[in-house]
Design goal:
The protein has 391 residues and is an all-beta fold. It has one domain: Neuraminidase. Helix content is 0%, strand content 42%. A five-stranded mixed sheet has the order 2-26-24-23-22, with no helix packed on it. Strands 4, 5, 6, 7 and 8 form a five-stranded antiparallel sheet that branches.
Length: 391
């Protein structure tokens, strides 16, 4: 799992402003004021007393019309003070939640017991967590078809320290998964994968990943590509220079056949931020174009979506008081961003966020994240359905 990373909490004062002000690249996003979103509606994706649900950003989210699938970790609750409140001495499961009505209601799907195979060899009903003896990653021998109507791909690291990653895929909207398959090191000391991919055809796909730095710790994002359905992968480029701290967890969107944008979680003291990078050559090179969140406090990964009107929507958790789920919008391909828009600020503490988000066919954004509110300690999976204001 992702280790806890701290950059200090810090407190930033907030005021409610009458409008949303665009923020230029020279100054980054506006960290000192927040506009309340007028119409977000919150739902519970999964909640169970005594349990811990978390980190959908590590697993992925997929959408097919009004059907949405999200992956997350489920464990047992244990109070660790300021750390993640999951009991590391009890099992942690990788599970799924599915909605068939655009995120309004959800049902959890449990993985099949170890060794319960259906269909051809290597097919499992659900996702089985790493560490099960029967589950040994193998090499992919049959190409994936990224254009299959029910295709879904998830990339996962075994641990932040191991530097070894794997992937699974589904062709039936995540009801059954093939894998795990080894993801190559691509000349890196280690690869720490989370799910960030852009399929551009039946055999072609770009992925955003994080590499081990030269000093031996996780912390440099890069872009890789396959042109043969995942049988082989090639390193394309690093996304930015190697930081002194870390830059991790890219969230990437395509803007044109050659233009990409990605947002990165950064801790490079004294900076703790979310940076945006652009590529004009389909991932072969990148340049930093803005800092949508200049003061991320303790930090949280970004979730980047593209709205139906072409604007970009960035959603992330804020792990500093008042502990919020925030959004920012961009109308110019990420060069400038609005000030923070508060989707909710009723969290009970810092153990929140790791957002994944999708855009429904009607234009509404569905964001899924882990959360705990002031009613009690349970860490649960929550969702917010939101219509961004017209530009």
């Amino acid at each position: 799992m992702v280790g806890r990373r701290r950059s200090g909490w810090g407190l930033v004062g907030r005021i409610v402003v009458g409008g949303i002000a665009a923020c230029a690249i020279s100054g980054g996003g506006d960290a000192g004021s927040a506009e309340p979103a007028g119409n977000p509606r919150h739902v519970v994706v999964y909640r169970e007393p005594g349990r811990f649900a978390g980190w959908p950003a590590n697993h992925g989210i997929w959408i097919w019309g009004d059907e949405i699938l999200v992956g997350f970790s489920r464990g047992y609750y244990k109070d660790h003070g300021e750390s993640h409140h999951i009991d590391r001495e009890k099992p942690e499961e990788f599970v799924l939640a599915r909605s068939k009505d655009g995120g309004e209601t959800w049902a959890m799907e449990l993985p099949q017991p170890p060794g319960a195979l259906v269909g051809t060899r290597g097919m499992r009903h659900g996702l089985v967590p790493p560490g099960i003896p029967e589950e040994h990653p193998t090499d992919l021998t049959t190409p994936m078809d990224f254009s299959a109507p029910g295709f879904a791909l998830t990339l996962r690291m075994e641990s932040p320290d191991a530097g070894v990653s794997r992937f699974y895929y589904s062709t039936d909207r995540g009801h059954a998964w093939r894998g795990p398959y080894r993801f190559p090191l691509l000349g890196q000391k280690g690869v720490m994968a989370r799910t960030d991919y852009l399929a551009t055809g039946s055999s072609d796909c770009l992925v955003g990943l994080t590499a081990e730095k030269s000093g031996g710790k996780e912390g440099r994002p890069f872009c890789a590509r396959t042109s043969d359905g995942g049988l082989t992968w090639s390193f394309l480029s690093y996304i930015g220079p190697e930081p002194g701290g870390y830059a991790i967890m890219p969230s990437t969107r395509r803007l044109s056949p050659t233009e990409l944008i990605t947002t990165i979680r950064v801790l490079d003291p004294p900076r703790s931020a979310i940076d945006a990078y652009a590529s004009l050559d389909d991932g072969r090179s990148w340049s930093r174009i803005s800092t949508p969140e200049p003061d991320a406090g303790e930090g949280n990964p970004p979730s980047l979506s593209r709205l139906l009107d072409g604007r970009l929507c960035l959603i992330y958790g804020e792990r500093k008081a008042p502990f919020s789920i925030l959004a920012r919008l961009s109308s110019d391909h990420g060069r400038t961003w609005t000030g923070p828009i508060v989707l909710r600020d009723d969290a009970g503490g810092r153990d929140i966020g790791y957002v994944r988000s999708v855009v429904r066919p009607d234009g509404k954004v569905v964001a899924v994240y882990y959360y705990h509110d002031r009613s009690g300690p349970t860490r649960y999976l929550a969702g917010t359905i939101w219509s961004p204001a017209k530009p």
